[in-house]
Amino acid sequence: MAKLYFNYSTMNAGKSTVLLQASHNYRERGMQTYLMTAAIDGRAGTGRIASRIGISEQADMFRPDDDVFAMIENRLNQGRVACVFIDEAQFLSDDQVWQLARAVDDLDVPVLAYGLRVDFRGKLFPGSAALLALADEMREVRTICKCGRKATMVIRQDENGNAITEGAQVQIGGNETYVSLCRKHWREAVGD
Ligand SMILES: [Zn+2]
Fold first, then answer.
1. What are phi and psi of 62, to 5 degrees?
2. CATH code of the domain in which 119 resides
3. How many angstroms does the Cα of residue 64 sit away from the middle of ligand 1?
């Protein structure tokens, strides 16, 4: 039986690197994988999953209204796929996570979704909330805070290094940077 996996982390934990390595392991053994990522700026077509350590792969992009079940079915009709990998899974809608669950159950293909658990306000992303509810298996991609403890939270900083506590969940093309912290240091940074 195929399963739906959710690999979650905070920012800069290297989840794209883990995804690309896992996909590479299949391809090295002669198996095909299907890579998908979010079209954050709304463009359809082919995008890339890029890791901060310099490796990248082509990936099909999903937009908020795309039927990801249909995208996977379409790809399977072109040839066998051992595994579907999805990056930026926090941007999936609730409906799209159900579509992934249907792909796993009805098309019998494993789906590995990689995404951020919470945003800079400490709130679950909708796609991550749905994945936490529906995934068969979950795994944490870990990174550490400046203090050495596990980082589970993220702050958005302005150009002066001050934590921003309000604003849209997704910021495109801004000058903000993100820093991953443990909960204690996140609370300190946001003035709790
Ligand atoms: Zn800390």
1. -110, 140
2. 3.40.50.300
3. 34
